[in-house]
Known about the structure:
The structure is a single chain. The protein has one domain (about 5-65). The chain has one helix spanning about 25-30, and strands at about 5-10, 15-25, 35-40, 50-55, 60-65. A hairpin with a 6-residue loop joins strand 1 (about 5-10) and strand 2 (about 15-25). The strands form two sheets. A three-stranded antiparallel beta sheet has the order 3-4-5, with no helix packed on it. Strands 1-2 form a two-stranded antiparallel ribbon. By secondary structure, the chain is mainly beta. The termini are far apart.
Amino acid sequence: MNISEYVVIKCPICHTEKEIEIPSKLIDKASHLTSVLISKSIVCDHTFHAFVDKNFAVRGYQKTDFELPSNI
């Protein structure tokens, strides 16, 4: 069994692509789709969600409208 899989993530704002590693155990726990928060600097300067199915296929993205500062 694989411990993780590599998935190509594409920013829905600037369209930058990057291959990231996603732990298999997170995907295995989900019933169908897993929402993965992609924080700034992982792919680009934007924060967004990627929706990944049980076959590690990206099914869609959601832009983040507002991000609270971490010092609140």
